[in-house]
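Late entry, evening session. Most of the bench is empty. Finally got around to the prediction I had been postponing all week. Sequence below, unchanged from the version circulated by S.P.
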Amino acid sequence: MKALIFDMDGVLIDTEPLYFEAYRKAAESYGREYDLTLHRRIMGIPERDGLRLIVEHLGIEASLDEFRERVHVERRRVTGRRRNLTEGSTTSRSTGGSWGYPRGTVCG
């Protein structure tokens, strides 16, 4: 083996709290309350489907594209402030080098 590759959302950074905060802030800007119950319903489905579910469930009076843009603004805001490294990420980053494998992180 020459390298270790991690390719799964949530392996390196725990993104769910960041997504939750972005969705919550976006909904709040329309006077609506986004909670964990709704968040769990959209986890793992394509973004557009999840956003449609949020808009319909909360009765947000905006187009899907408008709400999507608001979510993206909030997402940029919260991801710029915090990074939630997962425990597995910390372990792999600290031990991978001791195994003699090249290390790198790619996020997109």
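Two things to note before I forget:
Residues 51 and 68 are 7 Å apart (CA to CA).
The mean pLDDT is 80.
Will write this up properly tomorrow.
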